[in-house]
Amino acid sequence: MCDPQPLPGGDYTAFAMRTIAVSGWKVHARLRIDAPADEVLARINHAVGVVEPVDEHHCILVTGADSLDTVAVYIGMLMMDFTVESPAELLPRLRLLSDRYRRAAEESGVSA
């Protein structure tokens, strides 16, 4: 029998939140964000996902939700450029939202 090992850093709350963010959703997405990890972390709740630094200008956000539609909307609210690494099924939803927002911007009677 092994003795339990403490978590690195000892932050059990953060560990629980990361575990929920990664495994507690029906669908998951892996997104490359064109921003440093600390900027992404400043804009999201830790329960939203796990942020992994790639370099000083990019990071990976592993997130999830009850549907890919929800992921598509929430990633837009991040207000940062991104690339979808997975799942490919997220791309049609992003295209649909993109087209819908473009039409709304072009057809609205309000001038910017």
Description:
The protein is built from four helices and four strands; from the N terminus they run αβαββαβα. It has 112 residues and is of the alpha+beta class. A hairpin with a 2-residue loop joins strand 2 and strand 3. Helix 3 crosses helix 4. The longest helix is centred in the last third of the chain and has 18 residues, at 90-107. The termini are far apart.
Q: How is the secondary structure organized here?
A:
Layout: H1 12-23, E1 27-33, H2 37-43, E2 49-55, E3 58-65, H3 68-77, E4 82-86, H4 90-107
Antiparallel strand pairs: 1-3, 1-4, 2-3
Helix pairs in contact: 3-4
- Quote the distance from N terminus to C terminus: 67 Å
Biggest beta sheet summary: 4 strands, antiparallel
Overall SS class: alpha+beta
Strand arrangement in the largest pleated sheet: 2-3-1-4
> Which whole number gives the mean pLDDT?
86
The tally of beta strands, per DSSP, is 4
Oligomer: single chain
Question: How would the global form be characterised?
Answer: globular
Low confidence ranges: none
Question: Rounded to an integer, what's the Rg over CA atoms?
Answer: 17 Å
Please supply descriptive tags for the structure shown above:
112 residues; alpha+beta; four-stranded antiparallel beta sheet; 4 strands
